[in-house]
């Protein structure tokens, strides 16, 4: 017989199932075989084993906790970011952990119960922590002082801050931090002054070397404001003032670059090439009859041809002068004749053809006009005009185009531009003729073009040849 609920076997005289407690229906023994086939009995569930496993797990966990609690590394923990200071965990007699932090007056429990560790242990830990703090404070102060004495104030400040962290009420560290901040600010300001001084001085030197003395003086003054005792800058300012002092009848031409020659002109004007010239002074006008008369009176130098006629026009440019005559006058006046490059650079009046600037044939543009220059006249020598009769060019120079030809210092060489130096060219070392520039009242307009070149025997004495002088700035 089996239980109809769980299938467990049962005895004939059982009223209830021994496994599930369900009532067992009474069925005649002789009829069971005809009612159903026998059912195999199920295995009995051993529920008591689960309880045994649970108790064993709890006991194992308890043993692990006890073992960890006895490990020394588990009871000592880091409680802040300072690797030099550890918080100590002290077990009280009641198994309560008390942590002593960097502040000896602060403790906090690690477990449920809150009790005070034995006074002796707390005192020892407090003493140990205080000693560490004093040691760290002393070390940071010493390192800070070393950096301070070396002028390394930023590093010194960091050390003093670390010392103040160990001893918050320390006046010495606090004062040193403020001193370091002040010193750092002063150094930054001094560095800025030095940088500005160097910048203005360098700019002043650049302008000075280009002959732009007004700009140089302005920059030197700025440099001096950042370093008032600088003797070099003070001397340069004085030199600029001396060089800018007006020289009677002369104009200061700043140094610079320009495109010399022309690809559209005669072969001796080619190739067009870039040239740099230093700053120089040049006569505002051609040398006049009156000025040349002073030279003759002072030196007894020979008179040029038709001198009596020329004396009737004291403000006309002197003519009929040989190259040697012009050179002698320049030496007497403390000047010299201009190089061909200096003459063309000055004649262009700033229209250099470089750095985005235009380049023209004449001071006013590319076309000649009789009301702007004296050229191609048919009225004889009386067609010469008094100097300054026409508008000046961009540098304030008169008659750089027309009126009379002007002698230059160079020997003429039709191929010189093919091998000309790029800085301050002085012309060929030999030749048969000297350079003349500018055209005259007696020539066509193309001879007035700035790039036009002409070579003439230095002994020539013509009615349309004159000159002007230049002077070095130093």
Q: What distance separates the N and C termini?
A: 140 Å
Unreliable residue runs = 27-39, 73-115
Quickly give the CATH architecture of the largest domain.
Alpha-Beta Complex
| Helical segment count | 12
For the residues shown, what is the average pLDDT?
Answer: 82
Class per helix and strand makeup: alpha+beta
Strand order of the largest sheet: 1-2-3-4
The percentage of residues in β strands lies in: 5-15%
CATH superfamily of the largest domain: paralog of FGE (formylglycine-generating enzyme)
CATH domain fold name of the largest domain: paralog of FGE (formylglycine-generating enzyme)
- Under CATH at level 1, the class of the largest domain stands as Alpha Beta
Tell me the count of domains. Answer: 3
Helix content: 25-40%
CA-based shape: elongated
Q: Give, in order, the helices and strands.
A: HHHEEEEHHHHHEEEEHHHHEEEEE
């Amino acid at each position: 017989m089996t239980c109809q609920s769980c299938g467990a076997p049962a005895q004939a005289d059982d009223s209830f199932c021994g496994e599930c407690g369900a009532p067992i229906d009474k069925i005649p023994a002789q009829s069971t075989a005809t009612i159903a086939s026998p059912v195999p009995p199920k295995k009995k569930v051993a529920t008591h084993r689960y309880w045994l496993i649970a108790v064993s797990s709890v006991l194992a966990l308890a043993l692990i906790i006890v073992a960890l609690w006895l490990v020394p590394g588990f009871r000592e923990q880091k409680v802040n970011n300072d690797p030099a200071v550890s918080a100590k965990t002290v077990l009280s007699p009641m198994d309560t952990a008390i942590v002593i932090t960097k502040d000896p007056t602060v403790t906090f429990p690690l477990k449920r119960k809150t009790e005070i560790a034995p006074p002796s242990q707390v005192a020892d830990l407090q003493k140990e922590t205080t000693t560490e703090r004093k040691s760290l404070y002393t070390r940071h102060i010493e390192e800070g002082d070393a950096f301070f004495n070396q002028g390394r104030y930023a590093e010194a400040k960091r050390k003093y801050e670390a010392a103040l962290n160990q001893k918050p009420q320390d006046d010495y560290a606090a004062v040193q931090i403020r001193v370091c901040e002040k010193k750092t600010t002063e150094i930054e300001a001094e560095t800025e002054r030095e940088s500005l001084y160097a910048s203005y001085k360098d700019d002043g030197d650049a302008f000075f070397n280009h002959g732009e003395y007004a700009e140089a003086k302005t920059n030197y003054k700025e440099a001096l404001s950042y370093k008032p005792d600088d003797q070099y800058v003070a001397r340069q300012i004085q030199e600029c003032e001396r060089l800018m002092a007006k020289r009677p009848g002369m104009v200061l031409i700043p140094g610079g670059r320009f495109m010399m020659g022309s690809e559209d002109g005669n072969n001796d004007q080619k190739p067009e090439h870039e040239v740099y010239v230093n700053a120089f002074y040049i006569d505002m006008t051609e040398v006049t009859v009156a000025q040349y008369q002073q030279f003759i009176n002072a030196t007894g130098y020979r008179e040029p041809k038709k001198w009596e006629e020329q004396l009737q026009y004291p403000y006309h440019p002197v003519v009929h002068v040989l190259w040697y005559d012009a050179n002698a006058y320049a030496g007497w006046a403390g000047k010299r004749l201009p190089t061909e490059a200096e003459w063309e650079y000055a004649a262009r009046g700033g229209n250099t053809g470089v750095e985005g600037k235009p380049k023209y044939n004449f001071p006013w543009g590319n076309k000649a006009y009789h009301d702007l220059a004296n050229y191609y006249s048919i009225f004889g020598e009386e067609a010469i005009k008094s100097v300054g009769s026409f508008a000046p060019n961009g540098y304030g120079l008169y008659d750089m185009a027309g009126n009379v030809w002007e002698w230059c210092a160079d020997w003429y060489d039709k191929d010189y531009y093919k091998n000309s130096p790029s800085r301050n060219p002085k012309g060929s070392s030999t030749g048969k003729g000297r350079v003349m520039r500018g055209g005259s009242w007696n020539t066509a307009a193309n001879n007035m073009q700035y790039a036009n070149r002409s070579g003439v025997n230095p002994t020539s004495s013509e009615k349309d040849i004159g000159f002007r002088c230049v002077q070095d700035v130093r």
